[in-house]
C-alpha cells in the first residue's frame, strides 16, 4: 500500500549477521543494541506505546566479545526528519528511567540444543512508558552503546485522512481460515448444476477483496497472538505476544506495549467495544484487544485486563467492553470450584459489580437486555463445535457448564447467536459514538490443528451464516449503511482438497497401498455428495451440508501432520484426536491414535515426533470488505495495514489535532 | 457476479440420480436424455457453438430399463422467454442433421472396475453445427424422448455492455499457481526488515483482486484443458476437453464446440492474437485458444488448429495467430527426424508458407522483425526451467534443439524474452484493432506435479519478473493506458509452507523420526535465508533469491503425493523425479525414487500407488487486474466470468447489433 522506505542500519547489519534461524538471540535485534519498537515500525499519530532499550553482552558462543559486562552508559535520542536529535527524556518530557539488569540464555542451533550448550547473554536495559508521536512523518531513534556503536530505528507516523468514514466496524476473524478452506466449504454446502453454483457464500458476495500477509516480525510463521497484535495495533510482533514487542526479560508483563484499536477507539471517541469468540475468551484473538503481555498463556491476567485494562504499568484508561461473549469459564468461577482466576477472585462477581449482566446459556443470552453491558461465558474451555451442536448432539456431553459445577453445558449458543446479541447491545448502547465488534470463529483453527476437517469446515460455514445474519440484522436496525464489515483471518493452515474418496471401497481393502486406490482425482473426483444426497439435516437456504457422512467424501488434508491414520470420514464421536504419546520418558513421542481413522491408511508424519497436531502455514489470507470505506481494503498488503485501514475509517488518524 | 437463475429440470432429477462419483455415465447428463450445451450454460451474444443431443439406453447395471434400443424419434425445440417453442431446425434455419448411433461402456464404481464388469449404453444422437443466439435473455432448449420424457436446458445469453473499454488484453496464466505459492515466492525473493517487506511482487501492486472458482462442469477438480476452456469460452467443461463439451462418442473431434475469445476477437474485430507458453505449445493452456477436441493429447492436430483452425467441421474462419512462441518442436519438425506431426507434414514449412518468421533460439528471437507474424519453437517438449537457465546451467543439456537434430537447446529464451517480443510484434501489427496476448508460465504446474518446489517458485518469480517488464514495455510503447493486464491461474495444487528445515541437522540424524526434528515451526521458522545470505546470483532489484541452497530451507509441500523422500533441498541436477515404478507387471506401482532426496526422510503417499506425481487441487485462485476495465475483476466469481469480463471489456458483447 505504500512505497517502502530506505533500509535502516539494522537491516544492513542483518545481512552480515549470524545464520541462526531455528533459534534467535532476540527477534528484531540482530546487533547487540536493541530498540523496541524496532526499525521500520509504523505508528498511528498519537498511538500510545512503550520504548524498551537493551544492550547485550554475550558471554559465550559465536557472538562472545570477551567483555561479559553489558554497557550501562548507553544513550538514546529521537528526532523527526532532519531536526536535531534530542534525548528521549527531553523529547517525551519524562524522568530518566531506571537502569535494569538481567541475563538470558538461548541455543544457537539444534546441535547446541542436543549438546545442552546454551549461549548466555548479560543485558542492561531501560524502558520509557506511555509515549506517543503526534506529528505524521519519519522519525529516527538512535541507541548509542559500547563507546559509540550505533543502532538506529526508522519510525514512520503515517499521514492518514482524518475524516471519519464509518460509524461502526464489525471485524470477523476466521481463525486459521484460508481461501482454500472457503473453497472447500462452498463445495460441501452449496449446490452446483452443471458447474454453476446455485447459491454462494455470504463472503463471496462482498464487493472488495484483499490479501494480507500474516508473517511475524521475526519468523515467517505466526501464531494467533502475534497476528492478532498486528491486526489490532499495526505492529507485527513475535509468537506468543499480545500487544507488546518481545524483550529478553523473564517478566511476561514488562515488555513494551502498543495501543490497540479498541483502546484508541475507547480513549479518543468513547465508542463501544464488543468481543465475541467461540474459543475460551482468554485465548489470543479476543485477548489481544486489551491484553499486553509477552506470554499469551497468562489467562487469568488476560481476563482481568478485559475488565480493568493494564494495571501494573502506566497505560491508557480502560473501562471494559460493552460485550464479552465466549467460553473459558475456568478463568471466571470461584477457585473453590477449581477456577484458575487472577488473584483468586470470582470474575463473574467482578464483572457483575461493574454493571455487567452475566449470562451462562443460550436461553439467558436470548433474553438479555440490550441496554446493559453483558458478559456471556457459556462453557469451560472452548465452546462446542457447530457439528456437535447441530448434527452429533450427544457430543455436547463433552462440554462443561460455565458455573463450574461439572454438569454438561447443553444449552450453548453458536457464533451467530452471540454476534447478533452483541450487535443488539452495541447498537442500543453506542449512540452517536459508534461501535467496534470483533467476532471470531475460533475453531476453524482448532479443528484444523487436530486435522478434523469436517468440524473445521462446519465452523467456517457457521461463520458465513453469521455474516449473512449480521447483514440482515444491521439492515433491520438501520445500521447497515453506517457499518463497515470486514472478514479476514489471522493465518492459514496448509489445507486443500485434491479429490474424493470412496470410503466404502477403502474400508474393505486389505492393505494400506490398496486403500489408496479409493482416492479419485481429476474427473474421478466427481461432484460433491454433501449437498445433494440423503439424511437432510439442513434445508435449502441455510447452506450447510445436508449429509455429512456420504459414501464419497473429500480427499483433503494438510501436509504438516503427526503420524496419523486417515479414513477421510466424519468423526461422529466428537473432535478428532489424531495422535497419542507413545513415549515412556518425559520427552513426548506421538504416533497414530489407534482409535482414530479405523479402516483408513497410515500417513507418516512430517512434523517433529514431539508434535501432536498440525501447524500454521505461510499463505496470505483473504480480506473481504463491505460497507463505508470498503475501498481501503483491496489488493495485497500487510496484516498491519488492516489496523491502519480500520483506524483511518474510524477517524482515529488524528495527527495534528492532538 | 450475478444472481443464479432458477434450477432447471435436470437439477431436480440430479438429486434423485445414482450416487456414481468416481465414474459417471456421462458428465452433465444425469438423465437418459442429454443436451449439450447443458442446463445453466451462459453464452456471449452471437458466440458460435454446436448442439449435441444424445439419448441413452443402458443395457445393464443400475440404470438398465429392459429396452436396449435408444430412441430414434426424439425431438428438440428452442424458445426464448415465453415465446412459442419451435424446432431447432426452424429456429436456426438448418437442415435436419443425420441420426447417429454408437455405444460406450463405463464402470459404476471401483468394485465394478475391479470385477471387470462395465455397464454398456446404446446411444442415438444428432448434432447441430455452428449456431448462435444473438439476443440477450433466457432460452429454453427441450429434448423430448422415450415417448414424452423431457430434458430441459435453461440457457442464458448475458446482457453485457457493448462499449469497448480496452484496446488490448494481456492475460498472464500461472498454470497451477495459488495464493499460497505467491506468498512463498515473495518470501524467498523479497527482503523483509523487522516484518516489513522492502519490495513487493509486481502482482502484489495490482489495484484489483478477485478469486475465481476453477472446478469442472462434472467434477470438482479440473485439469488445464477444461479450465482453459472455461477461461477462454465462458463454458465450463470436462477434464481433457479443449473448446468442446464432452459427448459419449469415441471420435475426439465430433464433440460440440464453443467459440473462444481468440476466435471471436479475430472474427468480429480482426484483432491480433499472441500465444506464448513455456510448455510444449500443443499443451492444453495454449491449445485451448484455437483447438476443439475432447482429447487434449491430439497434439499434431492441435498444432494444425493454431494455423488453420477447425478443418473437419463447419466453423468460424481462422487465419493463425500473429505470435506463437513456446516449446514442443516434436509436433513441428520432419517425421524423418522423429517428428510426430499432423498428417506427417513439416509444420515449420507450413507456418513459413503462410508468412511466419520461424525462430529457433533466443538470439533469433531478439533479432526478429516486429512487422511479420512469428513462430518461435525453442526446444523439444517443455522449455527449460528458470532455475536451470540461470543457476544450474549445466542442466540445459537435458533440453533438445527445436531443429530435431538431437543436439542440446542451449540458447532458450525465458518467458520474459518471449512475452516482450510478442508485445513488440502485436503492437506493431495490430493497428487500431488491438491485440489479445495469452502468456503462460506453464512450469509452475509442471514442477509442482513433480514436487520440485524450488523450480516451481522459480517459474513463478519469472512470471512476476515478466509482468514487471511487460508493464515497462507497454509504457515505452505508449500502450499501457489502453491495455488491460490480467494475472490468474487455471487451478491450484495443495501447496503451502509451514516452517523451515535445518538441512545440516537433518542430514546427520540417523533415523527418519529424528530427522523430522530438523523442522522448525512458528517462532522456530525464523526468517528466510534465500534473500539474505551468500552465493549472490541475482542482485537487489531483480527479485530472485540470491541463494537457492541455504542451510535453512523451507518446510513446504503438498498433501497429495506418491511415496517420496523429502530432504527439502534444491534439486541441483535438474527437475525432480520423486517416485519410480517398482512393478514387474503392467500395472504401475510407484515408490520412492532411491536417487531422490538423499539425507531426507520417507513420506508415504496419499495417492493411488499407480500415480507418480502430485495432483491438482480445489482452491479458488487469484485474479489480479490492472488497466482499463480492471474494476470488472474484483470479488469472487466463476472461472467462466473471466471470459465474460474480457469479452465485455473488448466490446465483444454485441447482442442486438448482429
From TrEMBL, chains A, B:
<feature type="binding site">
    <location>
        <position position="449"/>
    </location>
    <ligand>
        <name>Zn(2+)</name>
    </ligand>
</feature>
<protein>
    <recommendedName>
        <fullName>alkaline phosphatase</fullName>
        <ecNumber>3.1.3.1</ecNumber>
    </recommendedName>
</protein>
<feature type="active site" description="Phosphoserine intermediate">
    <location>
        <position position="224"/>
    </location>
</feature>
<feature type="binding site">
    <location>
        <position position="445"/>
    </location>
    <ligand>
        <name>Zn(2+)</name>
    </ligand>
</feature>
<feature type="signal peptide">
    <location>
        <begin position="1"/>
        <end position="20"/>
    </location>
</feature>
<feature type="binding site">
    <location>
        <position position="440"/>
    </location>
    <ligand>
        <name>Mg(2+)</name>
    </ligand>
</feature>
<feature type="binding site">
    <location>
        <position position="285"/>
    </location>
    <ligand>
        <name>Mg(2+)</name>
    </ligand>
</feature>
<dbReference type="GO" id="GO:0046872">
    <property type="term" value="F:metal ion binding"/>
</dbReference>
<comment type="similarity">
    <text>Belongs to the alkaline phosphatase family.</text>
</comment>
<feature type="binding site">
    <location>
        <position position="490"/>
    </location>
    <ligand>
        <name>Zn(2+)</name>
    </ligand>
</feature>
<feature type="binding site">
    <location>
        <position position="283"/>
    </location>
    <ligand>
        <name>Mg(2+)</name>
    </ligand>
</feature>
<keyword id="KW-0460">Magnesium</keyword>
<feature type="binding site">
    <location>
        <position position="491"/>
    </location>
    <ligand>
        <name>Zn(2+)</name>
    </ligand>
</feature>
<feature type="binding site">
    <location>
        <position position="175"/>
    </location>
    <ligand>
        <name>Mg(2+)</name>
    </ligand>
</feature>
<keyword id="KW-0732">Signal</keyword>
<keyword id="KW-0479">Metal-binding</keyword>
<dbReference type="InterPro" id="IPR001952">
    <property type="entry name" value="Alkaline_phosphatase"/>
</dbReference>
<keyword id="KW-0862">Zinc</keyword>
<dbReference type="GO" id="GO:0004035">
    <property type="term" value="F:alkaline phosphatase activity"/>
</dbReference>
<dbReference type="Pfam" id="PF00245">
    <property type="entry name" value="Alk_phosphatase"/>
</dbReference>
<feature type="binding site">
    <location>
        <position position="616"/>
    </location>
    <ligand>
        <name>Zn(2+)</name>
    </ligand>
</feature>
<dbReference type="InterPro" id="IPR017850">
    <property type="entry name" value="Alkaline_phosphatase_core_sf"/>
</dbReference>
Amino acid at each position: 500500500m505504500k512505497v517502502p522506505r530506505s533500509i535502516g542500519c539494522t537491516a544492513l547489519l542483518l545481512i552480515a549477521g549470524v545464520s541462526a534461524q531455528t533459534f534467535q538471540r532476540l527477534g528484531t535485534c540482530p546487533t547487540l543494541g536493541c530498540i523496541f519498537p524496532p526499525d521500520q515500525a509504523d505508528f498511528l499519530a498519537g498511538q500510545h506505546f512503550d520504548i524498551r532499550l537493551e544492550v547485550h553482552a554475550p558471554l559465550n558462543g559465536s557472538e562472545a566479545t570477551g567483555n561479559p559486562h553489558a554497557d550501562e552508559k548507553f544513550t538514546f535520542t529521537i528526532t523527526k526528519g532532519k531536526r536535531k536529535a534530542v534525548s528521549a527524556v527531553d523529547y517525551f518530557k519524562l524522568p530518566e528511567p531506571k537502569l535494569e539488569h538481567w541475563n538470558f540464555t538461548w541455543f544457537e542451533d539444534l546441535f547446541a540444543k542436543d549438546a545442552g550448550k546454551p549461549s548466555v547473554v548479560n543485558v542492561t536495559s531501560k524502558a520509557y512508558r506511555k509515549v506517543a508521536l503526534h506529528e505524521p512523518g519519519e522519525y529516527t531513534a538512535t541507541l548509542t552503546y559500547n563507546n559509540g556503536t550505533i543502532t538506529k530505528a526508522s519510525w514512520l507516523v503515517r499521514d492518514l485522512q482524518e475524516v471519519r468514514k464509518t460509524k461502526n466496524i464489525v471485524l470477523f476473524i476466521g481463525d486459521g481460515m484460508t481461501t482454500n478452506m472457503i473453497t472447500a466449504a462452498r463445495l460441501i454446502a452449496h449446490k452446483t448444476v452443471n458447474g454453476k453454483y446455485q447459491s454462494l457464500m455470504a463472503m463471496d458476495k462482498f464487493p472488495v477483496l484483499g490479501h494480507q500477509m500474516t508473517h511475524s516480525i521475526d519468523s515467517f510463521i505466526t501464531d494467533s497472538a502475534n497476528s492478532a497484535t498486528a491486526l489490532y495495533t499495526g505492529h507485527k510482533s513475535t509468537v506468543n505476544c499480545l500487544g507488546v514487542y518481545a524483550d529478553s526479560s523473564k517478566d511476561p508483563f514488562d515488555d513494551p506495549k502498543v495501543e490497540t484499536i479498541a483502546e484508541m477507539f475507547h480513549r479518543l471517541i468513547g465508542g463501544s467495544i464488543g468481543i465475541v469468540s467461540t474459543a475460551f475468551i482468554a485465548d489470543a484473538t479476543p485477548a489481544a484487544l486489551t491484553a499486553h503481555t509477552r506470554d499469551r498463556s497468562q489467562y487469568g491476567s488476560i481476563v482481568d485486563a478485559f475488565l480493568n485494562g493494564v494495571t501494573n504499568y502506566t497505560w491508557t484508561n480502560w473501562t471494559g467492553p460493552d460485550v464479552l461473549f465466549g467460553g473459558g469459564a475456568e478463568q471466571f468461577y470461584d477457585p473453590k470450584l477449581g477456577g484458575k482466576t487472577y488473584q483468586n477472585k470470582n470474575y463473574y462477581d467482578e464483572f457483575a459489580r461493574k454493571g455487567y449482566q452475566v449470562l451462562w446459556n443460550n436461553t439467558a443470552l436470548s433474553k438479555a437486555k440490550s441496554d446493559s453491558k453483558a458478559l456471556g461465558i457459556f462453557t469451560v474451555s472452548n465452546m462446542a463445535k457447530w457439528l456437535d451442536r447441530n448434527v452429533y448432539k450427544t457430543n455436547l456431553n463433552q462440554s462443561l457448564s460455565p458455573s463450574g459445577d461439572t454438569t454438561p453445558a447443553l444449552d450453548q449458543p453458536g457464533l451467530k447467536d452471540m454476534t447478533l446479541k452483541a450487535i443488539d447491545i452495541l447498537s442500543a448502547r453506542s449512540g452517536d459514538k459508534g461501535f467496534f465488534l470483533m467476532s471470531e470463529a475460533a475453531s476453524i483453527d482448532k479443528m484444523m490443528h487436530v486435522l478434523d476437517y469436517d468440524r473445521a469446515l462446519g465452523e467456517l460455514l457457521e461463520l458465513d451464516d453469521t455474516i449473512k445474519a449480521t447483514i440482515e440484522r444491521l439492515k433491520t436496525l438501520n445500521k447497515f449503511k453506517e457499518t463497515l464489515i470486514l472478514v479476514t483471518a489471522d493465518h492459514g493452515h496448509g489445507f486443500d482438497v485434491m479429490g474424493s474418496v470412496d470410503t466404502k471401497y477403502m474400508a474393505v481393502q486389505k492393505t494400506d497401498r490398496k486403500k489408496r486406490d479409493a482416492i479419485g482425482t481429476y474427473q474421478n473426483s466427481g461432484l460433491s455428495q454433501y449437498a445433494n444426497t440423503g439424511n437432510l439435516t439442513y434445508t435449502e437456504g441455510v447452506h450447510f451440508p445436508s449429509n455429512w457422512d456420504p459414501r464419497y467424501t473429500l480427499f483433503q488434508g494438510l501436509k504438516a501432520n503427526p503420524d496419523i491414520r486417515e479414513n477421510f470420514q466424519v468423526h461422529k464421536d466428537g473432535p478428532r484426536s489424531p495422535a497419542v504419546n507413545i513415549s515412556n520418558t518425559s520427552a513426548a513421542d506421538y504416533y497414530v491414535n489407534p482409535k482414530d481413522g479405523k479402516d483408513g491408511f497410515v500417513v507418516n508424519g512430517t512434523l517433529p515426533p514431539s508434535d501432536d497436531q498440525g501447524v500454521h502455514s505461510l499463505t496470505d489470507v483473504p480480506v473481504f470488505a463491505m460497507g463505508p470505506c470498503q475501498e481501503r481494503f483491496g489488493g495485497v498488503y500487510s496484516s498491519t495495514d488492516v489496523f491502519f485501514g480500520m483506524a483511518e475509517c474510524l477517524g482515529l488518524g488524528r495527527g495534528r489535532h492532538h
